[in-house]
Amino acid sequence: MEPLTGVxxxxxxxxxxxxxQQAAEILSAWRARRQDRQAxxxxxxxxxxxxxxxHPQPLPDPASPEMADALQELKDLVEPVKDGEVSxxxxxxxxxxxxxxxxxxxxxxxxxxFAGERPRAVDVSDVDVVVQRVAxxxxxVHADLAGLQCPxxxxxxxxxxxxxxxxxxxxxxxxxxxxxxx
Length: 182
What we know:
This protein is 35% helix and 26% strand. By secondary structure, it is of the alpha/beta class. It folds into two domains: 9-114, no CATH class; 122-176, no CATH class. The chain has a two-stranded antiparallel ribbon. Strands 3-5 form a two-stranded parallel ribbon. The longest helix has 27 residues, at 9-35. The protein is globular.
């Protein structure tokens, strides 16, 4: 399926500007923090009406140098789209926007949805949790399926605990159906 299917052009234009600005804010803050550890962490910028972001909490620092490099590369790829030099109708433009959004969703720890967009599949993979001692509960993934309105896939979840206390619990994947009571 083509990325960003169903998103109206006006919402997509606003979304691209938002993604670009959020990426620029994060990169700027990360650079400042590399120079001065006391510099403030990145801020979540206010999203336009056509974009929904739920409780963003940007990473104070990149998880790896590759994350910062990928964010810079995707921001640069999306810039001509934001400036109107590349049409949003081009499949490559939409793919770049979708990839930037996916990375920003990881960085701000929140889904980013454009108005009119169809629900996207949830894909969780390559989760590794390593602990030395477990006194309570450790879970690789805990998912509440009650509110899920799209397909989901959970793969390659590994939890390693070398010392589990009596009563301790180590779980790879825990799926729940916590239906709210009215």
